[in-house]
Structures are given as structure tokens and as C-alpha cells.
Design a protein that fits this description.
Layout lengths: L10 E3 L17 E3 L7 H28 L7 E2 L8 H11 L3 E4 L4 H13 L6 H8 L2 E5 L6 H22 L1
Parallel strand pairs: 3-4
Antiparallel strand pairs: 1-2, 4-5
Helix pairs in contact: 1-2, 3-4
Length: 170
């Protein structure tokens, strides 16, 4: 959780290929703010952590949009890619303010297909029951309350930078 302090002053809105959700704006572009001329490992690490936080704030924006429509999320389930690393998992929990769960399954996408197949083949009566039967939580990463005020400020900066980039484009 303390890794966020390494990104002090650097903010990333990682919309390099547009925004898929919640705005579905293919013309959106990335914003990197606060980057200096330093070329050392510490600055590269700060940019990396800021980028991870930016991914988390984008996810938080989706969760906020879902909440506005009445969908309540209790947790985030993560698998594959960068989500395999504990640092990424903890930063996502902290940036979104929700627990991040990992499963014991090494191939969760394939498990999802198998769950649907189990329902289609009448092995399980419903997707919810098949999920209960075939999935098992491995680890839970909880948001650390000490860092929530900092993430709230960074999230507000994220949204302002995103909005400003759209205004400049228009």
C-alpha cells in the first residue's frame, strides 16, 4: 500500500487506446502529468506505480458508474496478466476501496467456460451454484484505510485530468 507514495506528483490516465468503460470514448487519449526529466530507476518506478494507480482509478470509475445504476460491488476478482502480482492486487484494492480476491484456479477464463458448460450440460442447475461448486478463493487483499485519503485525492486529480484532456480535444 505504501508504494503509492512513490508516485508523488505523477499522475497517469492510461487511455492510450481510448476509453472502453464507462464512457465508451474511442477518441480519449492518455495523460501523463508531473513527469520530469529524471532518467533514474526511482523515476521509472514512480511512473510505473502511477500507471498502476491510473488503472485502478479507471476501474473505480467503472464501479462508481455501476453504483450510480444501482449495482453494488462487494469485491473485485482478479486473474491473469499483471494481476498475478501482489503489488498490483493491493494497489487495485486501495485505489478502488474494495477487497481484491484471487482464486485457486490458474486458468479462470477456462474455468468460466467450464462453469457455463456444466450448466448447459445439466451438471449444475445454475451459474451461481456452479460458481459456488467450482470456484474457491485463494487470497484476499483488503484496502488499507490509512491510504484512502491519498487515493481519494489522486482519484479526483485523475478525473480532472481526464476531463481536461477531453476539453482540449474538443
Amino acid at each position: 500500500s505504501d508504494a503509492v507514495t512513490l508516485a508523488a506528483g505523477i499522475h497517469v490516465v492510461p487511455e492510450f487506446l481510448g476509453n472502453r468503460a464507462p464512457f465508451a470514448d474511442p477518441h480519449a487519449r492518455a495523460v501523463i502529468c508531473g513527469l520530469g526529466m529524471e532518467r533514474d530507476l526511482d523515476n521509472l518506478l514512480a511512473l510505473y506505480v502511477a500507471g498502476l494507480c491510473g488503472i485502478g482509478y479507471g476501474l473505480r470509475q467503472i464501479i462508481d458508474a455501476q453504483n450510480a445504476c444501482g449495482v453494488r460491488n462487494k469485491n473485485i476478482v482478479i486473474s491473469g496478466g499483471a494481476g498475478q502480482h501482489p503489488l498490483v492486487r493491493q494497489l487495485l484494492a486501495d485505489t478502488c476501496g474494495l477487497p481484491v480476491l484471487t482464486t485457486q484456479c490458474s486458468e479462470p477464463v477456462l474455468l468460466g467456460s467450464a462453469i457455463l458448460g456444466a450448466v448447459a450440460g445439466n451438471i449444475s442447475p445454475s451459474v451461481a451454484e456452479a460458481m459456488t461448486q467450482f470456484t474457491h478463493v485463494d487470497t484476499c487483499y483488503y484496502p488499507q484505510t490509512a491510504y484512502q485519503p491519498l487515493h481519494h485525492r489522486r482519484y479526483e486529480a485523475y478525473k480532472q485530468l481526464q476531463h481536461m484532456a477531453k476539453m482540449l480535444r474538443e
